[in-house]
Amino acid sequence: MGLDELEPLNIPTSILERLVHFQVTNGGLLGTRLLEDVQHCVKLERLQLDSGGYGFEWSVPDPSMESLAANGLFLPNLTALELRQLSSFDLPVLQYLKMPKIAEITLTLGPKENNDYDYEEGAAEDIHSNEARYLALFLGAQGTLRSLTIEGPDFLDNSLFDILGDLQSLHTLVLKSCWIENDPFGTLLQSPAQKYLPRLKELRLLRHRGLDLLDQYRLWSLGSRRGIQIEIS
């Protein structure tokens, strides 16, 4: 089921309970209202949400958010989650998603200019640190995750180790349009007894920035020794 430009959604619970695929594309949809609907999708296998570049709007304080923080949002059959054009205000909500069967996650962060920040001195660094922390908290809880795609965030340069270090079941990792420096994969892929990313089989760095030719050569060598297929473009 696909929905576009709806506020409110007003979908009967009897329909939501039967959905296996739910797709929403909307600029400025009230996030709390959306979560109220998604909580009824107990058979849902694939969830695709696109904010249209504006991020979702969150009403605080809100009884739905209080319930979400206390109980989480349980999606027992979800195997694929795709969240596009997220703002930094959306990231804290991810930690409340409970997805015991999740296998595939795609995350795209919207452009920084769409985030309503009033930067003060040092504020940008604090915001990026929080973004990485929320991502690490969310992804580290997904023990069945096999495929992860992340596109667009500026803050990955110093945070990849924290974000990826706990992904024990990951087979495929795709990073698009990310700034990558300081060779974080050297630590991740050379760890004793393959402590980090032990099941990784495919690594794709697409439209990346930051890795020089020497870093790329080292990464290919590491990948070859561990049997990891690596694509860099």
Give an overview in words.
By secondary structure, the chain is of the alpha/beta class. The protein folds into 2 domains: 1-114, no CATH class; 117-233, Ribonuclease Inhibitor (Leucine-rich repeat, LRR (right-handed beta-alpha superhelix), Alpha-Beta Horseshoe). It contains 8 helices and 11 strands. The chain has helices spanning 13-16, 31-38, 63-71, 91-94, 123-140, 160-164, 184-189, 213-226, and strands at 2-4, 21-25, 46-50, 73-74, 80-86, 97-98, 104-109, 147-151, 172-176, 202-206, 229-232. Strands 1-2-3-5-7-8-9-10-11 form a 9-stranded parallel beta sheet, covered by helices on one side. It has a two-stranded parallel sheet with strand order 4-6. The protein is elongated, with a radius of gyration of 18 Å.
Keywords summarizing the entry:
233 residues; 21% strand; alpha/beta; two-stranded parallel ribbon; Leucine-rich repeat, LRR (right-handed beta-alpha superhelix); 9-stranded parallel sheet
Strand order of the largest sheet: 1-2-3-5-7-8-9-10-11
CATH class of the largest domain: Alpha Beta
CATH homology superfamily name of the largest domain:
Ribonuclease Inhibitor
What low-confidence regions span 5 or more consecutive residues with pLDDT below 50? 1-6, 113-124
Q: Architecture of the largest domain, according to CATH?
A: Alpha-Beta Horseshoe
| Count of domain modules | 2
End-to-end C-alpha gap: 35 Å
Could you report the average pLDDT, rounded to the nearest whole number?
A: 79
Percentage of helical residues?
25-40%
Q: Helical segment tally? A: 8
